[in-house]
Amino acid sequence: MAWHPLGWQPAFFSDIEDFPRAALQHHYPDVPLHGDFTTIGADQYGAIDLLVGGTPCQSFSIAGLRGGMDDDRGNLSLEFLRLAERKAAKWLVWENVPGVLSSNGGRDFGSFLGALVELGYGFAYRTLDAQYFGVPQRRKRVFVVGYLGDWRRSAAVLFERQGLCGDSPPRREEGQKVAPAVTTGPPFSRTGNERVEADAMVPVFPTLDASMDAKYGCNQWVDSKQYVLEPIAKTLCAHGQRFDSETENFVAFHPTQTPINSHDVFHTLGAGASASAGVADSGLRVRRITPIECERLQGFPDGFTQIPYRGKPADKCPDGPRYRALGNSMAVPVMRWIGERIQQVESL
Questions:
Q1: Strand partners, 14
Q2: Residue 106: inside a domain, yes or no?
């Protein structure tokens, strides 16, 4: 998806999971598809320009057991390099979770980089976050770019000269006022046991205001004076929700149970009644992110993973495999940026 617009042609794919294999065959029926990539021989396809892969991250992830290279899945990172050697790949791109940097005290990643050097690759690595490439999610991943024989080309791909010049902007002068974003007190000060109205109210970032009922965006009454606060960011609203089984839509309610426009509450983070604990009760349900939203989070076109699967048409494609495949994929705009940088270096 990321590199096809650049005019690049895939020599082969490899995946052992059923659904990603079905998706690859659906979108790229003419490209050879392998299972276990360790079985790809040196005499297949000839030399290739670039080998890209994201070997399993579970052995390096802080959410896993962190077995590192002692885990068979972690050892696949070294098998990836053996494949690069067999195919005499001029370039390689490898992706994994940031946990790989600290796995086994950094020795696992050091083994990977050391093996790169033994194979004759110069390399550079950098952590990139997908949120800065145009998708609405924070997704940090470590990317290693290798070039056979020259580390400078790898560095030219991952690092931008303007970000390495050291010409940082001057610091702002220190101010005497409290930063508004951390002001959480009520709009008055206290002298002894008396509350004294502040001379000038400092704007309070509503989502951080925890004074009295302000966190709910309510009006405050202090000494017969009303202080009207701005509504809080809707992503933090805790109004109730009701699921309409006929329309299959969520209907939002204020605490008074008066129906309001369903767009007034961002349902993904809604926490009404018992739904705040993730428990569906009394007709309340917690809204899950949809497969299309997952596709957008990763930079894929809408419906990219809605494919014919196991004898069923695309409109009957189950959601579970789509979630799993998208979660294991690489963010498309990040990979496109890397591809464009490689193409720029190749053209010099």
A1: 34
A2: yes
What are the tokens at 81? 């390099």
**Residue 237 annotated among the catalytic residues of the structure:** no
Asked whether the predicted pLDDT for residue 155 surpasses 70, the reply is: yes
Catalytic residue among 57, 237, 294, 317: 57
Of 80, 118, 119, 116, nearest to 96 by C-alpha is: 80
Q: For residue 341, what are the domain limits?
A: 4-164+327-347
Give how far Cα 62 sits from Cα of 57, 65, 77, 97, 194, Å.
10, 7, 17, 9, 51
> For residue 161, with 0-12 CB atoms within 10 Å meaning exposed, 13-18 middle and 19 or more buried, which class applies?
exposed
Q: Which of 90-104, 253-267, 300-314 has the highest mean pLDDT?
A: 300-314
pLDDT band, very low/low/confident/very high, at 72 (cuts 50, 70, 90): low
59 and 131 co-located in one domain: yes
| Whether residue 152 is found in the same domain as residue 184 | no
Neighbours of 270 (CB within 10 A): 24
Question: Do 13 and 120 lie in a common domain?
Answer: yes
Q: How far is CA 72 from the centre of its chain?
A: 25
- How many domains in the chain? 3
Q: Which residue type is seen at 222? A: V
* CA nearest neighbour of 236 among 260, 283, 269: 269
Instruction: Summarize pLDDT for 254-263 with one digit per residue, the tens.
Output: 444 444 444 4
What mean pLDDT is predicted for residues 101-128? Answer: 92
| Together in a domain, 12 and 73 | yes
Tell me if residue 194 falls in helix, strand or coil: strand
For residue 234, the model assigns a pLDDT of 40
Percentage of the chain modeled with pLDDT above 70: 60
